[in-house]
Design a protein that fits this description.
globular, about 200 residues, alpha/beta, single chain, Rossmann fold
């Protein structure tokens, strides 16, 4: 029997067309993929987020894309969670990670921000780190001093072909977490790379 509690799935990114297809918007891209897969419209606006409500394999789920910039995304997410009375343990946050190899996913149940401004903003706003996060690996550029340009840059053709597969796999990871729990998600999806040929 499906659980009755509502889950909150938050994709982190930056609003606006200038950032739409950048590495930093991996969270938005996964939420968009979820919305398409489960016919959930995410065009409702509330608390400076875009959101939509629907069911994922019978699990009532709210998909959220904060419309504040990444480093200010915590407060809008907290307001949505409080409004719908969703405990933070029932929140799943999806974000890019430069410290994770391009093409890899990693699920964590809690932890620090790891230098990610969006996750830092969330922890600051929520006052705790007890939410599940799905890290989407975007890797680092060859130039260590060029981190900002890397995460705000777009994909080349080869990277884009791979990343489309990564996003679909991330969607599957989200579905597994929602329906079977974070630990099952870790067992299935952590530390497995996706190659262009796969």
């Amino acid at each position: 029997m499906p659980e009755k509690r509502v889950r909150l799935v938050v994709g982190l990114g930056n609003p606006g067309t200038d950032y739409a297809n950048t590495r930093h918007n991996a969270g938005f891209l996964v939420v968009d993929e979820m919305a398409a897969a489960w016919a959930i419209s995410i065009h409702q606006k509330k608390f400076n987020v875009e959101l939509g409500r629907g069911r994922v394999n019978g699990i009532e789920t709210i998909l959220v894309k904060p419309q504040a910039y990444m480093n200010k995304s915590g407060l809008p997410v907290r307001q949505v969670g409080d409004y719908f009375k969703i405990p933070y343990r029932d929140m799943l946050v999806i974000h890019d990670d430069i410290d994770l190899e391009f093409g890899r996913l990693k699920i964590k149940e809690k932890g620090g921000h790891g230098g990610h401004n969006g996750v830092r903003s969330l922890i600051d706003a929520l006052g705790e780190d007890a939410f599940v996060r799905l890290r989407v690996g975007v890797g680092r550029s060859g130039n260590e001093g060029n981190v900002v340009n890397h995460v705000l840059g777009t994909f080349n053709q080869q990277e884009r072909a791979l990343f489309e597969k990564v996003i679909k796999r991330a969607r599957d990871a989200v579905e597994t977490i929602l329906c079977e729990g974070a630990k099952e998600g870790m067992n299935r999806f952590n530390d497995r790379r996706i190659h262009i040929s796969s």
